[in-house]
Amino acid sequence: MIKIGKELPKSDILDLITEANLWSKHVRKDENRQELLRAVLNDARDRASDEFFGDEAHQALLDFARALVEFNLRKDLRDLVEDLAESLRSDGYELIVQPEVDLGAFSGFRHKARILPTDPSWVPLHEEMTALEHELAVRGYIQALGHYKAAVKNFSEQDHPSSNGQLQTALEDLIVNLAIDHTGYTDSGRVNQGGLAIKSLYVRGGQGRAVIGEPLPEKDGGTLIQGLWDISHLNGSHPGLSDAQEARIRMQLVTGGMQFLLRHFPV
Hints:
Blueprint (H helix, E strand, L loop, with lengths): L1 H4 L4 H10 L13 H16 L5 H18 L6 H13 L2 E10 L6 E9 L7 H15 L2 H15 L3 H24 L10 H4 L4 E2 L12 E2 H15 L11 H21 L3
Parallel strand pairs: 3-4
Antiparallel strand pairs: 1-2
């Protein structure tokens, strides 16, 4: 947003800050445009994490992003707008831009923008991440925790292929640990054991109901974890193979799958 906003006159920036309800004591009109935007957006980001006022600040940031795109979508800024759209996808939002009014050959179009949530659940993904990190720490699965934390860090930095690769390793470490702790699987000490260890966590062809702590029947959870394992090996840590939306979906699936496994195979 800073890269787009700094292309505007300062008076327009101040108007957009007011429109998005981002005005605060940190707004200093004597700052240059970039520093003005940086101070306002950093303040709003900090307030967005507040327990009581976070929702209001979070919505203000979304309103500012929308107003920014609607205000000035020149052709030479399209790449920056696409960068903003990718960043929003990482946070669980889709930026939709549609031309609204033709202003003539020299002025182009006025645009209408909307920012819509892509997550079906009201539970923010970061809360699910935090819960999983806590459970991994409690269980002593330190390697899985380390790789998962690295995946989350890469994801937040929009390094999507690296995030995918770390997620794959975190899932594999968890599978090996659970197989050792609950099925008598023997750790060979070699890398890439996940494909073998996962076979001890479910019963191929199993038709019955799942029993907590026992290998999952194929038809009641086994297919789920095998499918998750297979998906985690697609578009991994190879550059350029994963966009923000796919990386977020993968983060949701693996986070949920790891929680499912920890719940089925308790301490």
